[in-house]
Design goal:
- With about 110 residues, the chain is an alpha+beta fold.
- It has a single domain, classed as Dimeric alpha+beta barrel (Alpha-Beta Plaits), CATH 3.30.70.
- It is about 25% helix and about 35% strand.
- The protein has 2 helices and 6 strands; from the N terminus they run βαββββαβ.
- It has a 4-stranded antiparallel sheet.
- A hairpin with a 2-residue loop joins β3 and β4.
- The protein is flat and about 40 Å long.
Length: about 110
């Protein structure tokens, strides 16, 4: 079984106008998906990143960013176990994130 990481890319302004009830419904979709995939032995971990923008380290400098006006940011990630890329794509394709963003799927180098 190989390990993969799903990087969840999104537009930071996608939910600016969402009501609390709409946000709760979106969260519940993710929770239900993660529970289903976890029970199937596919999702082994996941993290939602904060919206504060974080820091960028490049060329010996530390900068704030990415900025709120960025077109796309990584909002979170899931770690999955899959037999191969086709299996990993099937898992990622069922993720509710695809309704409002896109997913970068990467295989983890075995240690």
């Amino acid at each position: 079984m190989a390990q993969y990481v799903m990087l969840l890319w999104e537009n930071p302004s996608a939910f600016v106008d969402a009501s609390p009830a709409e946000m709760q419904a979106v969260i519940q979709e993710y929770v239900a998906w993660r529970q289903r995939m976890g029970a199937a032995g596919k999702v082994t971990g996941g993290l939602k990143l904060t919206d504060d923008g974080g820091k960028r380290l490049k060329g010996g400098t530390v900068q704030d960013g990415p900025y709120a006006e960025a077109h796309e940011v990584i909002g979170g990630l899931f770690q999955i176990d899959a037999t191969d890329y086709a299996d990993a794509v099937a898992v990622a394709s069922s993720c509710p994130h695809l309704r409002n963003g896109w997913i970068e799927l990467r295989e983890v180098e075995p240690t």
